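haha ok so turns out i had the wrong file open the whole time. this is the CORRECT one, sorry everyone. sequence first:
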Amino acid sequence: MNGTASSDSLTSTTAQATITIRDVNDSPPSFNKKEYEVSLQENTAPGTPLPLDMNVTDHDVGINSKFSLRLDDVSGVFEVEPKYVNGFSQVNIRVGNGTLDYENPNQRKFIVLVIAEETDTKPKLSSTATITITVLDANDNKPMFEISKKRCGDNLRLKDVLVSGLANHEL
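then structure:
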């Protein structure tokens, strides 16, 4: 509108107007960091949350701010909580199914992708964060002994029997 304010009540009037601004789905969900690193002991109990300071936000409003969280984790060892978010949430990654085993070389390091994807929009905007999880060895295996007996001369008495052994503990 162009013009100047008038104080003449015959040529001017005042009205109240409501303006509604509709949200455009222009913000994907985003994590507070793109990459996370954490180390944990192999004897970490299932259900234990990883010590991460992870959160995710979608700055849109209404249905444009609803999204799901899921993991791309080929090992199936980890779980994400919550599964569904509206706007903002802290994110917990937990040791889920199974146990960790440092003695298994395939379980010493995991790279897990966390995916946040809108649920009720087209297109479904999304983003990811990467977690590198290093598994540390715990003293969880007893040493094993390999014993070999050697035959000695016939002159030995019982108290003279020799036993040789080798202690073996897998790292």
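DSSP finds no helices and eleven strands in the chain.
again sry for the mixup
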